[in-house]
C-alpha cells in the first residue's frame, strides 16, 4: 500500500462506519457489504466489483490493529488529501534562515544520517519511515523506490465454512471455493499489456515519491504520475486494467482440526491472496459455523446426551447401550437412580490435545401417558407396597419455627 492510500483514501467511508467504530462494527459492516457486492452475486457488474475491491482493501487495513493505528496517525498528521502536509510552520524553523526561506527536509530531521539526529528523533523516525516506505527513517530516494517496487505481501482473506456437528467434533477435510484478489494471469502482475513492459517514472525517477518546498520545510509525497509505484504503464493490460490484480476463483483443501467450536476463527498461514512481485501470500481465516445435532449437545469438550429409561430400570438398575460419536458403549445404571441424574462416560467426548472430553448421559424416567387396566392395577399395588413416607416438599413457615 502506498503512502497516498494512507493520506487520500477514506476507508471508514468505504465501509460506512464512524472513525471510532470498534472491531465488531467494522467486521459487521464489511460482511454485509462483501455479501452484497460479491462478484458471484453481481456477475458482469464492473462497478460492484470495483466497490468489492475497495471494501476488501478498507477492511484489510481497519481490521489490523497496527495498520489501522498507522492509517489514523497518517491522516491526523497530514490530513485527508495531504492538506496537513501543506501547512507550513509560520516564521520559519530555527536555523533555517530569515523568514524560513531555507527549505528544511523532514528526511534530514528523522533520517539515519548522523547518530545524534537519529537518537533525537526516537519513535518519530520510525513513524515517518513506516509511512513513506523507508527502512527506519526518512531514507533515500533509492530506498523508497525499492520499497515501492519491491515484493508486497498478499492480502489476508476471510471465508466461512458450515460443518455438521460430527465434523466439528471429529475433524474433517473440506474443499473451499473462494474468490479473492490474485496476480493477473495475463500480465503476471506487471499491469502492462503482454508484449510491453512498465518503464521508470520520469517524474520521480522510480522513487515513487516527489519532494516540494513549503515555507521552511521540504515535504515528500506520493508521485501523482505513477501513483507511488515508481513505474508507469503506457499500455495497460486489458484483463486487469493495469492494476496487476484480478478477482480469481480458486478451490483449496482445508483440514479443520477436531474440536472446533461454532464461531471459531481458524488461521491458515500463507493460504490467502498471492503476494505481488514475488512477495509472500497473505493468510486465510476460516470462520466455522457448526450445525446442531438431533441427539447431542456440547459443554466445552464434554458432550451431553439425554436417555429415557423406565421406572423399573431406575428403581432396579439396568445396563444401557448408549450411542456415541465413536460407536456404542455399555452404561450401567445403578439401582435407585433418580430421574435427571447424570452419569459420566469418560473419553467419549470431544478429542483434545491432552485428554479427550467425556460424554455426560442424563437419564430421565419416562412416564406413560396411558395405562392398561392391568398396568394401572399393578401401579396401585406397587404404590401401596411402597407406603409412607411419601416424597413431598414441606412449605417453610414464614418468620421461623413456632
Automatic annotation (TrEMBL):
Pfam hit, one: DnaJ_C
Biological process, per Gene Ontology: DNA replication; protein refolding; response to heat
Keyword set includes Transcription regulation: no
Zinc finger CR-type: from-to: 171-249
Entries under SMART domains matching the protein: DnaJ (SM00271)
GO cellular component, one term: cytoplasm
Localization (cell): Cytoplasm
InterPro entries registered for this protein in UniProt: DnaJ (IPR012724), DnaJ_C (IPR002939), DnaJ_domain (IPR001623), DnaJ_domain_CS (IPR018253), HSP40/DnaJ_pept-bd (IPR008971), HSP_DnaJ_Cys-rich_dom (IPR001305), HSP_DnaJ_Cys-rich_dom_sf (IPR036410), J_dom_sf (IPR036869)
Residues reported in the UniProt entry to bind Zn(2+) 1: 184, 187, 237, 240
Keyword entries, A-Z: Chaperone, Cytoplasm, DNA replication, Metal-binding, Repeat, Stress response, Zinc, Zinc-finger
HAMAP family: DnaJ
Family the entry assigns: Belongs to the DnaJ family.
Function: Participates actively in the response to hyperosmotic and heat shock by preventing the aggregation of stress-denatured proteins and by disaggregating proteins, also in an autonomous, DnaK-independent fashion. Unfolded proteins bind initially to DnaJ; upon interaction with the DnaJ-bound protein, DnaK hydrolyzes its bound ATP, resulting in the formation of a stable complex. GrpE releases ADP from DnaK; ATP binding to DnaK triggers the release of the substrate protein, thus completing the reaction cycle.
Name this protein carries in UniProt: Chaperone protein DnaJ
Amino acid at each position: 500500500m502506498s503512502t497516498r492510500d494512507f493520506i487520500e483514501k477514506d476507508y471508514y467511508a468505504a465501509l460506512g462506519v464512524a472513525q471510532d467504530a470498534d472491531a465488531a462494527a467494522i467486521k459487521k459492516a464489511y460482511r454485509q457489504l462483501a455479501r452484497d457486492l460479491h462478484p458471484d452475486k453481481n456477475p458482469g457488474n464492473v462497478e460492484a466489483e470495483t466497490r468489492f475491491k475497495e471494501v476488501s482493501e478498507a477492511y484489510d487495513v481497519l481490521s489490523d490493529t497496527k495498520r489501522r493505528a498507522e492509517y489514523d496517525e497518517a491522516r491526523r498528521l497530514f490530513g485527508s488529501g495531504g492538506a496537513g502536509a501543506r501547512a507550513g510552520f509560520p516564521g520559519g524553523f530555527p536555523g533555517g534562515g530569515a523568514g524560513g526561506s531555507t527549505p528544511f527536509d523532514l528526511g534530514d530531521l528523522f533520517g539515519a544520517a548522523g547518530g545524534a539526529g537519529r537518537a533525537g528523533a526516537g519513535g518519530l523516525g520510525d513513524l515517518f519511515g513506516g509511512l513513506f516506505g523507508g527502512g527506519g527513517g526518512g531514507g533515500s530516494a533509492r530506498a523508497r523506490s525499492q520499497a515501492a517496487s519491491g515484493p508486497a505481501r498478499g492480502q489476508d482473506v476471510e471465508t466461512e465454512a458450515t460443518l455438521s456437528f460430527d465434523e466439528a467434533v471429529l475433524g474433517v477435510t473440506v474443499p473451499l471455493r473462494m474468490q479473492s484478489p490474485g496476480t493477473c494471469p495475463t500480465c503476471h502482475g506487471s499491469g502492462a499489456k503482454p508484449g510491453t513492459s512498465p518503464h521508470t517514472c520520469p517524474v520521480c525517477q522510480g522513487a515513487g515519491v516527489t519532494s516540494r518546498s513549503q515555507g521552511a520545510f521540504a515535504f515528500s509525497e506520493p508521485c501523482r504520475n505513477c501513483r507511488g509505484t515508481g513505474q508507469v504503464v503506457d499500455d495497460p493490460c486489458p484483463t486487469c486494467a493495469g492494476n496487476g490484480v484480478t478477482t480469481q476463483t480458486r478451490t483449496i483443501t482445508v483440514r479443520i482440526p477436531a474440536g472446533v467450536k461454532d464461531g471459531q476463527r481458524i488461521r491458515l498461514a500463507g493460504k490467502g491472496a498471492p503476494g505481488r512481485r514475488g512477495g509472500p501470500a497473505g493468510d486465510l481465516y476460516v470462520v466455522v459455523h457448526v450445525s446442531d445435532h438431533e441427539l447431542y449437545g456440547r459443554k466445552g469438550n464434554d458432550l451431553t446426551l439425554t436417555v429415557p429409561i423406565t421406572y423399573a430400570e431406575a428403581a432396579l438398575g439396568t445396563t444401557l447401550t448408549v450411542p456415541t460419536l465413536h460407536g456404542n458403549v455399555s452404561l450401567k445404571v445403578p439401582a435407585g437412580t433418580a430421574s435427571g441424574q447424570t452419569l459420566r462416560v469418560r473419553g467419549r467426548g470431544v478429542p483434545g490435545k491432552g485428554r479427550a472430553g467425556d460424554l455426560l448421559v442424563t437419564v430421565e424416567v419416562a412416564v406413560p401417558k396411558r395405562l392398561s387396566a392391568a398396568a394401572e392395577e399393578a401401579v396401585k399395588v406397587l404404590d401401596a407396597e411402597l407406603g409412607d413416607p411419601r416424597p413431598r416438599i414441606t412449605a417453610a413457615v414464614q418468620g421461623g419455627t413456632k
